[in-house]
């Protein structure tokens, strides 16, 4: 009862510090991220790979409507995990920042700059009253000055740069898998395969083509490219990850 | 008592995260949706069908005043479930967006664009303080680039695209019915029949013509068309769903 | 005690959802409507009848000062039940909308349009913080395109169209009476008689001329007409509803 | 304890509905009115009489400083009961409305119009957050189109028109006295006598000239006239209401 | 415990009514007045006398820095009791009003007008949220149209006019003393003596010249005049009120 | 437990009155002052002396960075005790007021005027919601019209003028020491010595030169002068107050 | 339980004083600082050294993305400890202040001025409602007028100047280490070695080159210089602090 009463005190009104220096609303927003299905980012020598688990709630739902990976600009993509409606707000914010950069400086926005404008925006929602934090984590990947870059944003508004990273459900297991299996010198296909194998670990080592989103931004083209169903199926076939039967779960507004 | 005290903490003031990363006010708004009578959307090859259960509280109430399906623009309709007064606000918002699009670009607004402008609007009410979330779900259906499209919006502000979907009371059973009975290649009449049969399942397999709203947007005309009483009666007769006696219930501001 | 603690949680600050999807402040506002004396609306072929029970608190109070029926525009009247001071605000709002319509379009405002502008206004007070909902229900009756129309607004901001309807105290009994006794093809006098008989049922089948307000908007004249004491007395005499002795009660700001 | 906990819930922050549809803050404001000494209004054929009990807290206090009756405009007066500082705000508001009317339309403001502008102002303080209701009731009397009019405003913002009415302490007894003793066809002196006799009933049937305020607005002059000490003493002598010894009580900011 | 819980309910946020119609924050502000040392005002035929007990906290404190009496304008002075910092705000407000009056109308502001502008300002802080009431009472004395006038303002914003009045500590006893000893026809010196004798009653019938402030506004000069130490000592000597030894107490921000 | 519950009621939201007329937040701010190390002001015939205990938290901390005495203008200095960051705000405010005065009137601001502008600023933070009071007391000393003046401001916003005064830790003991040892006719050196002896009493009658700040504003120069380490050491040597070993304590943001 | 209930009272809404004069939200923000990994600043005769422990959460995280030391301007650097997203806000604020200074005065901003603009900004967040304090401490080091300067800012907004200082985890032990080992006359390399040895004490006397950030601002160049991996490794080799095996921990948004 004590623990509960204590929690209540830090949940009301605005985001404030607990006696041990934590921001409960931000930590609870991290729980909203964990309730979403996983997204994975892999930085390879040839570009960045974004992949996402997007299990549909029903066979009648259009798989394309469960958006987990979005184009932010020609040279940049964003994968999300957590509260879907919040993700949409941040992605729109990122797109506007990218457009403004092109208008002002006639050049694509740097991936680090883009990430930090997003995290500054997120931070404001954790300090100023009258709104709750964003319940979503993002992976922002793209090409900057010819180099692949991959960033994570979390609900506190902290940016992290990664070689390979997982957000959302089962982050602990997936990150461990990535640490064990990531190797320098990967090409894009290697990155796609690592991402798919990782996602499959939490799904009995199988994946439906329609249940996964994959996108790349290659160093060569500097173009965001979303793989179509056939491309994904080809990868899954090569990796022997295609299921014999499907498995669908419902979740509520978190992916 | 613990559970109750905990709930109270997350219900006051603004919409904030619970320790497990949920937004209680949004989940309670989903309960308001479930308190409303059901609406169903069916996407067929020939267009979109919207159908809604609209039981009147009294034989003296004008059936037309229980509005469950609305024209959003020439080529788009909206069905709702939940808090009626909230639905009216969102539908007015959608209509204004559609008009603005015609004025600015001299063309009908895309169904996906329309849906996302509505869900962005809904999301704001779940993050910024000083107002409660919208207690209503919408089905937005219409024709975009010659193709039928059908979307759902929920109180979190998440958009979903569907082949066939149910919102409001008995969603679980109705969605199950749709999954079992939906087939690709339906024409508009097939869509109407599937929607009416589904709605009838929660009403002892009967429906009053005045107790149901049906509208279509066909690929051919790209025009929103609301079926009149006679058309609906003809369908119900064909389907043998006309009741021998009527059954009226009261509800309070939810439909 | 649990129920009470739970209620408290949803009563403070702004209007928010309860765990079962209800808006308690709106439901409590409906209780304020029930605390007011009854008003009745009847739609006949020849026009709309509005009637209201307006028991005075004291023989020294001017009966005309207990306003239950108001002219909204030449062709439209409004009866109210509930918190009197709130009713005055909404009626003033309705009058301004009607005037604006005449100024802008040089024609009388449609009864449906008028009703929906009022209900949109009411809805705002149930969603945006910083104010309580309106504790009043209205009956809005008038002529639109030569047709009689009769609407109800409730504290949630939902509009309903009726053939015959009762708001305020004893709604359940009065509505049942109307359902049993309403018949299509009524003329205005038939409507007045039905309304008076219904109001009398909750008053030992008697009514004081000064204790009731009656107004009509006929299809012929399209003019709001409030019956004077003699006209009302003549109707009550015809219907044998005049009491042998009077009976006065006090209430506080609700009528 | 339950009742108390429940009350607390509806007393905080803004004025909101209780589960039975009541506005506690407004009802508590009515208690503030009851804590004030009584004021009485009488409408006669020849004009309106306002009278007020204004017991001083100390023989050293200037009796004129306990203002209970105020001139609102040449043709209108206002008596108050309840929180004095609140009364002053409303009376200033009324005076400004009367002046504005003279400036705009070059004619005296109607008594009904004046009353309703005051009650609309009062109502706002019961619905919009950030302020408490006014803890005062007013009697507004004057001449409109040659006719005497007498209105009451209460803390909910409801206007009532009366032939004779009492506000403040002992309202129940005083109103009963007025109902038993008021007769049509009174002249101004008859009205003054009725008011003084009524006030005296709660004071052992005696009144100090300095302990009562009396003012009239006659149909003939259409001028607000406040009786001086001698005039009041003459009336009290005629009515045999002069006390043999005085009796002074203290109260705090309510009169 | 009940009383305490009940009090808490009315102390938070803004100033609201208690169930018995009282404004607790205003009543608590009256307690702040009682915590201050006494001030006395006497109206004589020749002018107004203001006197104040101003015990210093330490012999090292400059007696002049404990300001209890202030010049508001040439013809008007103000004595205070209660929260010193609040008094300074109101006195500055009063001075600005007096200056504005001189600028606008080229004449000294009326004492009644000045008082009522101050009380209207005070009242706002008791009704509108976001601030607490002023914890101070004022005595405003001066000459208006050749006549001496003496007013009191209290934390509710009510103005009272007095012949002789005491505010602050021991008001009950001091007011009783004034009632017993005040007589019409006093001259200024008589007024000063009455004030000093009254203040001395709560100090073992002695007063230090440095422990009391005295000021007058005479009808002749219409000038605010603050007595210097010698003048006060002369009066105290004449009245045999000089102490044999001094007595100093500390208080916190209330005088 | 009762006392605690009661305290809680007055600590939330804004600064409000307790039932006995106290402002708890202001009293708690006074506690913040007591948590700071002592500052002392002495008014002598030749000028004002400000002295402050400024124990450093660590031998590595720059002693000059623990600012306790500040130049407000050429002719005025300010010493503080309490919350350091709050002190900086008020000192900046005072400096701006002094500059504005020079710009507007081409003359140095009066010490009394400067003090009262600061206390008015402080008072606002005790009455208007949305901010907490300042947790700091100031000593403002300087020359006005050739005369030395010394003022104290406290967290309520009350100004006091002193011959000699102590703020911060051990105020009771230090003020008692000053009362016993202050004598009229002191010169500046006498004032410095009294201040240093007083500060030493709470430090085993020793002081480190680096552990004390001393500044003067002399009548001759009308210039603020901060003593350097050597000057202070010379005084301490003369007074035999130099310690044999040092003693350092930590505190958190209060000095 | 008492302690807990008491804490709750001071945690809600805005930052307010506790009965003993403390600001709990500021103290809790200091706990957030302690949760971050340590940063150290050393002032030497040749310039300022900033060093920071920056343990990565995963071998896949880019060490450069865990930013603990930032360039504020050519001549100034900032190290942080605590809530990373908050640190970014303050560092951006500091950079803007430095740029504004260069634009306005065409010269580098003073390190003391820069620090005080940052602490004034921090203080506002501890006094005005609607936001929480910053959960971060900064070390601001640079060259001002040819002299090395080193400042600390804490969550209360207090600036401190240091010869050598540690913020973040293990402050107590690290500060003790610095006090024992700091000596006047250090050169830059000596400063770097002291900082690295201190950081290593809390890490079993070993440091990974990638796990530590080091930067200098030398008096000679007046340029901020961040050491690269090789430079750091050379220092660690010289100091025999290189580990035989690595050790990685996770933390959440605090560094």
From TrEMBL, chains A, B, C, D, E, F, G:
Where is it chiefly localized? cytoplasm
GO biological process: one example: proteasomal protein catabolic process
Record's keyword annotation contains Transcription regulation: no
Cite the record's Acidic residues compositional bias ranges: 243-255
Please give the superkingdom of this protein's source. Archaea
How is the protein's activity regulated, according to its record? Answer: The formation of the proteasomal ATPase PAN-20S proteasome complex, via the docking of the C-termini of PAN into the intersubunit pockets in the alpha-rings, triggers opening of the gate for substrate entry. Interconversion between the open-gate and close-gate conformations leads to a dynamic regulation of the 20S proteasome proteolysis activity.
Q: Which SMART domains match?
A: Proteasome_A_N
Region annotated Disordered, chain positions: 228-255
Record NCBIfam families? arc_protsome_A, PRK03996.1
Q: What does this protein do?
A: Component of the proteasome core, a large protease complex with broad specificity involved in protein degradation.
Q: Which family does it belong to?
A: Belongs to the peptidase T1A family.
Q: This chain belongs to which protein, by name? A: Proteasome subunit alpha
Organism (species): Haloplanus litoreus
């Amino acid at each position: 009862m004590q623990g509960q009463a204590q929690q209540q005190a830090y949940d009301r009104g605005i985001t404030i510090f607990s006696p041990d220096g934590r921001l409960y609303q931000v930590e609870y927003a991290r729980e909203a991220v964990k309730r979403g299905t996983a997204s994975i980012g892999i930085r390879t020598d040839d570009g960045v790979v974004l992949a996402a688990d997007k299990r549909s709630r029903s066979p009648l739902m259009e798989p394309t409507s469960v958006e987990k990976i979005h184009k932010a600009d020609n040279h940049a993509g964003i994968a999300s995990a957590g509260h879907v409606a919040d993700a949409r707000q941040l992605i729109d914010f990122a797109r506007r920042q990218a457009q403004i950069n092109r208008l002002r400086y006639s050049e694509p926005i740097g991936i680090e700059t883009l990430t930090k404008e997003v995290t500054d925006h997120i931070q404001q929602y954790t300090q100023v009253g009258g709104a709750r934090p964003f319940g979503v984590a993002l992976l922002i990947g793209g090409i900057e000055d010819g180099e692949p870059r991959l960033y994570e944003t979390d609900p506190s508004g902290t940016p992290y740069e990664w070689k390979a990273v997982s957000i959302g459900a089962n982050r602990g297991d997936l990150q461990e898998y990535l640490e064990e299996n990531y190797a320098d010198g990967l090409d894009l296909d290697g990155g796609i395969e690592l991402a798919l194998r990782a996602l499959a670990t939490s799904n009995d080592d199988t994946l439906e083509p329609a249940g996964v989103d994959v996108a790349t931004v290659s160093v060569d083209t500097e173009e965001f490219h979303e793989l179509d169903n056939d491309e994904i199926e080809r990868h899954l076939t090569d990796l022997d990850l295609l299921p014999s039967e499907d498995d669908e779960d419902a979740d509520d507004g978190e992916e």
